[in-house]
Amino acid sequence: MPKIALRPRERKLLVGGIALILVVGLYVVVERPVSAYRQSSKDLVEARHNLTDAREWSKQVSEARQSERTIQDLARARGRGFVLFDFLEELLPQLGLRERANFHDRPLMASSRSVQVVELNIKGVSLQEVVDLFCRIHESKKLVVLRNLEWLKPMQNGKGLECRLFLASPKD
C-alpha cells in the first residue's frame, strides 16, 4: 500500500480536527455525569428542605391533635347542656357586674349551628373589672372564648368604661 504524504499544512489541519473531535467527544461523555451530579446535589438540598418541612408539619399536626384532645376533654368535663347565656347569668352577679351589664344571644353571629354567641354590653366598669371577668371566664374551663371585643372606651360622663364584647362557646 502506498504511503500518503501529507503536506505540513494538511497534517496540522488533520491533527486539529482529530483534537477537536476528541475534545467534543470527551465533553459529551463527561458533561452528562457532571450535570447529573449537579442536579442530584440540587435534588438533595430540596429533599432536605422537604424533610425539614415534613417534620415541622408533623409536629404542628401532633400539637393540633393534642389541642383538639384537650378541647374534647374540657367539653366532656363541663358536661352536656352547657348554655353560655346561663353561665353569664351566674357569673356576672358574682363579679358585681349584673346591674351594669346587658347581654343577649346572637344566633345570627354564630358561624354555624354548633356555636353559641352572646353579646355582652357593660357600662361604668373599670379596666380591672373587665380583666377579672376575663380571668374568671378562663378559670372556669368552660370553653368560652372572646370572639370579638368590639369596643372598650371611656363613658361620655367620664365614670368608668363601657365595652361591647362577643363571647362564643361550642354547643354540645
What this model shows, in words?
With 172 residues, this protein is of the alpha+beta class. It folds into two domains: 8-78; 84-170, Ribosomal protein S6/Translation elongation factor EF1B (Alpha-Beta Plaits), CATH 3.30.70.60. The protein is built from three helices and four strands; from the N terminus they run H-H-E-E-H-E-E. It has helices at residues 8-78, 84-94, 127-140; strands at residues 101-105, 115-125, 145-154, 161-170. It has a four-stranded antiparallel sheet with strand order 1-2-4-3, with helices on one face. Strand 3 and strand 4 form a beta hairpin. The longest helix has 71 residues, at 8-78. The mean pLDDT is 87.
Biggest sheet: strands, sense, closure? 4 strands, antiparallel
The figure for the number of domains is 2
State the low-pLDDT regions, or none.
Answer: none
Helices, by number, come to 3
Radius of gyration: 38 Å
Biggest sheet: strands side by side, in what order? 1-2-4-3
Can you give the mean pLDDT?
Answer: 87
The CATH homologous superfamily of the largest domain is called Ribosomal protein S6/Translation elongation factor EF1B
CATH-defined fold name of the largest domain: Alpha-Beta Plaits
The CATH first-level class of the largest domain comes to Alpha Beta
Beta-strand residue fraction: 15-25%
The overall strand count is: 4
> Architecture of the largest domain, according to CATH?
2-Layer Sandwich
Shape: rod-shaped
Which sequence of SSEs, written as H and E, runs from N to C?
A: HHEEHEE
Q: Pairing-aware structural class of the strands and helices?
A: alpha+beta
Oligomerization state of this entry? single chain
**Separation of termini?**
105 Å
The helix content, as a percent range, equals 55-70%
